[in-house]
């Protein structure tokens, strides 16, 4: 494993890949997502863990997504996802509406190398009614107890942003432990990091429990402000002015494309070039 | 005049009545969890914790200080399935008289006329958390419909499904409902000050039960107001600074 540029990172996600991405609070690799758009990735099967916002909205707006598997798409306090709403109305993406714990459970099945995972609830919902890939079985240990089983979600790639990585490919995730699940489930894990440490992160015992070891990490790119226009933990808040403009402008495809152009010239641009 | 005395000279605002009412519904909970974008439920949960003498634990998603989860988003769902979350809040773009909730959109799926974010964890948590409090400030016929267009999470049914959870109450800007599990209908419990039963009926698209005399929702008294305007406001302000500022302005 060695540190790569963001464009090289983007080249590691082939067209048609099943790509899992993190929710805003966990760490969104926006600079890398913009690099994916720049390279023109197509037909992604995007899986959000378990929800997503701007990253998914922009990938949809740029025509990169064929299938979307999600529990919710929202830009939080800024509003609903304009490109997501448009794509739903046009029927231009295949929707696999899910529920948060079902996405975790599918990834946990993949992590364990299991074909499926049972999960409580979900029965009698229209979520289940529109998921022919989900099944209902009788609990084999208690007759009459119906339970939903979900197929493993085996991602071709996982992509997220972290505060710190080292030269060995170990990445520090703090308390954002679900990133561990993404890395364990995916065949390829690619990461952007705010900072690169010259130390080996696994050597600090106080911190090593919050480190995804290089064993699971295929590539790391150094990306200061790599979550922009989104915020990143305590490091920086979301770019509220940009987000507010996006919510208004991206109501039309032409307006979205203007915002995309602006984003491609943003802080990530020099990294992706 | 002391800060506390000054703080309670102002009458309770509608938001403070909601916080106080929801806190009443949470009393006795061991663990209350609060989802994203939920400042009023969050304030109510923190109020409940403040008066519980350490008996109530609160996990506010999105908070650093008031959320001790260290295993990612999955931890809430694992706790819920074990029966270790007593109360949670769900909303709904549409809610019908059988307590079905819709967080997905209006029209026929998938190409809906209006699309909302999605079902989040509702399809699961509604089954598993004993006191789910439905909270929707907008009380209108476009929200409270005869039948939801999409069932994100179903109200209780006699279907033999493992269901320790379900609706405990529903609170809106107009009133507080209970839910009768045997009859599978909402029951009007109280109407907030300044509103009437007729107004509730006019703005609700489904039938519900009501006693002959519907009481007024209690208004928080001086000590409760002081707590809301002091400690609770400070604590919720960490996650929802804008909301805390509005609470201070009254």
Please characterize this protein's 3D structure.
The complex is a heterodimer of chains A (273) and B (250). Chain A is α/β, with parallel strands linked by helices. Chain A has 2 domains: 3-98 and 158-272, 3-Layer(aba) Sandwich (Glutaconate Coenzyme A-transferase), CATH 3.40.1080.10; 116-151, no CATH class. Helices cover 32% and strands 25% of the residues of chain A. Chain A is built from 11 helices and 15 strands. In chain A, helix 2 (30-39) links the parallel strand 2 and strand 3 (44-49). Chain A starts with a strand and ends with a helix. The mean pLDDT of chain A is 95. Chain B has helices at residues 3-7, 14-26, 39-50, 74-81, 122-128, 197-202, 222-237, 241-249, and strands at residues 31-34, 57-60, 87-90, 94-96, 101-102, 105-106, 114-115, 131-135, 144-145, 167-171, 175-180, 185-191. With 250 residues, chain B is α/β, with parallel strands linked by helices. Chain B has one domain: 3-Layer(aba) Sandwich (Glutaconate Coenzyme A-transferase). At the A-B interface, strand 6, helix 4, helix 5, helix 6 and helix 7 of A face helix 4 and helix 5 of B.
């Amino acid at each position: 494993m060695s540190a790569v540029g963001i464009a090289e990172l983007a080249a590691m996600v082939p067209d048609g890949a099943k790509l899992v991405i993190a929710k805003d609070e966990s760490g969104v690799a926006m600079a890398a997502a913009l690099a994916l758009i720049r390279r023109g990735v197509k037909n992604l099967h995007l899986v959000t863990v378990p929800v997503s916002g701007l990253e998914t909205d922009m990938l949809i707006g740029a025509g990169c997504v064929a299938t979307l598997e999600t529990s919710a798409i929202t830009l939080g306090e800024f509003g609903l996802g304009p490109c997501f709403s448009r794509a739903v109305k046009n029927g231009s993406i295949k929707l696999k509406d899910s529920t948060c714990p079902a996405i975790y459970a599918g990834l946990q099945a993949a992590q364990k190398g299991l074909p499926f995972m049972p999960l409580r609830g979900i029965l009698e919902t229209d979520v289940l009614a529109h998921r022919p890939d989900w099944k209902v079985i009788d609990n084999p240990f208690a007759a009459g107890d119906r339970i939903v089983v979900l197929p493993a979600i085996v991602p071709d790639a996982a992509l997220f942003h972290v505060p710190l990585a080292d030269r060995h490919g170990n990445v520090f995730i703090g308390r954002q432990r679900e990133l561990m699940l993404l890395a364990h489930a995916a065949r390829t894990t690619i990461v952007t990091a705010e900072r690169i440490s010259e130390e080996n992160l696994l050597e600090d015992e106080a911190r090593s429990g919050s480190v995804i070891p290089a064993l699971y990490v295929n590539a790391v790119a150094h990306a200061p402000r790599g979550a922009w226009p989104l915020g990143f933990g305590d490091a920086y808040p979301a770019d509220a002015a940009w987000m507010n403009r996006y919510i208004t402008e991206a109501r039309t495809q032409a307006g979205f494309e203007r915002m995309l152009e602006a984003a491609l010239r943003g802080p990530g641009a020099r990294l992706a070039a | 005049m002391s800060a506390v005395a000054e703080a309670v000279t102002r009458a309770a605002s509608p938001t403070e009545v909601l916080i106080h009412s929801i806190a009443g519904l949470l009393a006795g909970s061991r663990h209350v969890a609060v989802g994203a974008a939920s400042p009023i439920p969050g304030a109510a949960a923190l109020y409940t914790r403040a008066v519980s003498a350490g008996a109530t634990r609160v996990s506010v998603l999105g908070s650093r200080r008031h959320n001790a989860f260290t295993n990612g988003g999955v931890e809430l769902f694992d706790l819920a399935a074990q029966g270790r979350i007593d109360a949670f809040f769900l909303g709904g773009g549409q809610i019908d008289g059988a307590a079905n909730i819709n967080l997905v959109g209006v029209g026929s799926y998938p190409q809906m006329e209006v699309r909302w974010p999605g079902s989040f964890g509702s399809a699961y948590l509604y089954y598993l958390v004993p006191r789910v409090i439905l909270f929707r400030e907008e009380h209108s016929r476009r929200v409270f419909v005869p039948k939801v267009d999409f069932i994100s999470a179903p109200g209780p049914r006699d279907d033999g499904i493992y269901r320790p959870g379900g609706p405990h109450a529903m609170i809106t800007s107009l009133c507080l409902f209970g839910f009768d599990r045997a009859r599978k209908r909402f029951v009007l419990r109280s109407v907030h000050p300044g509103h009437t039963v007729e107004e509730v009926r006019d703005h609700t698209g489904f039938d519900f039960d009501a006693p002959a005399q519907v009481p007024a929702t209690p208004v928080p008294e001086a000590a409760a107001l002081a707590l809301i305007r002091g400690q609770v406001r400070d604590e919720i302000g960490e996650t929802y600074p804008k909301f805390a500022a509005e609470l201070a302005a009254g």
